[in-house]
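Fig. S4 source data, part A: sequence.
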Amino acid sequence: MPLVVVGPGVEPGRRGQATTNLDLAPTIEQLAGLTPERWRAGSSLVPSLRDRRAPGARYTYVEHRQGPVRPGEPDADAGSGGRLDAIPSYTAVRGERGLLVRVDLARGWREERWAWELYPAGPRYERTNTYARMHDRPWVRDLRRRALAWEDCTPAQCRRLTG
């Protein structure tokens, strides 16, 4: 996630860590002198802001849970694309080598049927699903293990999965 931060105690320079919007709340809390709540899934970026060589997250996660969209909700606005309820549930993990997505293909909540999609990093990033031919590579197996561990993890467990 591109982000520019300036201020007292912020060491200038680029950072290479993976971040998401979940990291913003604990970062702002810590910059304000507060202790981030333990239940937050995100991690503060303050250590990296103070020392650009500080280790940061290597993986980020995104999840979407399908559900009905009711009239009046922002997701029901056809002008913004609407029909968020048409997007199936998924969990995705992004690492340096690519993005792995676990897509729920079930037609109802009583059924479990999943598909995997893999999009390696590179010049044609996220254009072709290569899971069928690359699923057994060690880095893909690691992403799959992380995606499965993300399901039902506690905030502390989820934070550990980003390292």
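Fig. S4 source data, part B ends here. The radius of gyration is 18 Å.
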